[in-house]
Amino acid sequence: MSSNDKIYKMILLGESGVGKTSILKKFETGEYDPHIYCSQVTNFIRKDIKLPDNNSRILDIWDTPGQEKYRSIIKIFYKGANAFVLVYDPTNEPSFNELRIFWYNEVKHINSVIFVVANKCDSDEKVVKDEEGKEFAESIGAIFVSVSAKDNIGISNLFEQIAQNIHNKNWDF
Ligand code: GDP
Ligand code: MG
What we know:
Layout: E1 7-13, H1 20-29, E2 43-50, E3 56-63, H2 71-74, E4 83-88, H3 93-107, E5 113-118, H4 130-139, E6 143-146, H5 155-168
Parallel strand pairs: 1-3, 1-4, 4-5, 5-6
Antiparallel strand pairs: 2-3
Bound molecules: guanosine-5'-diphosphate and magnesium ion.
Guanosine-5'-diphosphate binds next to α1.
């Protein structure tokens, strides 16, 4: 890491229980813990992400709690964010509705890269189809990705795509 390397910031957002902490933990340590943990108000890890072109990008990945009581507090951490990852659980329809109604509205005015992520793709109890997630992502100019923190599907690829898209974006207005 040289002092010239820019450090990018990305934030995981979405309802409580969609799997934000599990995604981060899987990416950080390769572990998955089926017990629900209570997220600290916020918490981040710094990762050097290798890209296919052999370069790497440094990403600070922030986890947040989704409960309503924390919503005003976590806004403080939006400052300087380059990417927002809006996570929902396709087995839980309200988590998708809240993503469209509440979470997207939180970030839509911020100059950033947005990802819409359906976690728990391992589950066969999906009530929200991937097509719906994809359609919503397209309607807001975001990128849709389906992952499973439990079965480690698409997790490292997700962070690679985020790093790549942050890097490619022209940050000048
Ligand atoms: P958070 O509140 O968004 O941080 O969600 P957590 O990471 O605490 O996960 C909430 C619950 O969903 C836990 O019981 C996890 O074990 C479960 N979970 C997380 N990711 C997955 C996944 O990929 N598949 C399945 N089936 N369950 C998951
Ligand atoms: Mg959490």
